[in-house]
Amino acid sequence: MALIDSLIGTAGQWVASSNPKATLAQPLDWLRKTGSYAAVNRIIGMAIPFATRNNFSVEELRPGYVKARIRLKGNKNHFGSLYAGAYFLVAEIPGGVLTLFDLGPNYTPILKEMTLEFLQPANSDVTVEFALSPEAVAGILADADSTGRAKFTLEGVLKDEEGNHVANSVAHYRVRKKGFTPQG
User: Fold this and answer.
1) Cα 115 from chain centre
2) Each residue of 39-57: pLDDT tens digit?
3) How far apart are CA 116 and CA 118, in angstroms?
4) What Pfam families would the database entry show (predicted)?
5) For the chain, how big is the Rg over CA atoms in Å?
6) How many CB atoms lie within 10 A of CB 168?
């Protein structure tokens, strides 16, 4: 786990120093950005091999924000649209990614409860975006540092490639601070 914690910290620095809007017109910036996301997705695959096998990927990551994608390929159900478990995967993992990269490897995210509301079938890849304000991150850190744990909720809007709103997610997380011992 120490190796993964170290990789998370390093990849977080790479991502934070990359330009998320870089294109091939800025080749060095584009290489830094694409290399950063490749590293993030490799780390996720090491920690959760199921994510890689099911074509999950982080598309964008910056302080307080993550956008993720699940591919339709390999995740079709019996009638050709996205399998329900794939919706869950794309809506759940980004909360952990956001937590680890915003709070650091000394805080462990744990999913406590999650609900999905399916609105219509997705016949393409699906994306979801989550954000935490700087104030929310500061509050999570303050709670975890003082009590050893903190709670937060992420609500997601899942969209297909055409921008159709296909599902909603609500995920309740708890963060635990590693090595916490109460003072007093």
Assistant:
1) 17
2) 888 888 888 889 999 999 9
3) 6
4) DUF4442
5) 17
6) 16
Higher pLDDT: 4 or 130? It is 130
Confirm if 102 and 63 have CB atoms less than 8 A apart: yes
Q: Nearest-CA neighbor of 128 among 78, 66, 170?
A: 66
DSSP letter at 27 equals: H
Range 87-104 average pLDDT: 92
Of 135, 133, 125, the closest CA to residue 159 belongs to 125
Residue reference for tokens 């989550």 = 130
Paired sense of beta strands 126-131 and 56-62, if any: unpaired
Assess contact for 19 and 32: CB atoms under 8 A: yes
CB–CB of 48/90 below 8 Å?
no
C-alpha 108/C-alpha 1 separation (Å) is 12
Considering the entire predicted model, what is its pTM? 0.86
DSSP string, 114-153: EEEEE-S--SS-EEEEEE--HHHHHHHHHHHHHHSEEEEE
Q: Tokens standing for 37?
A: 């996301």
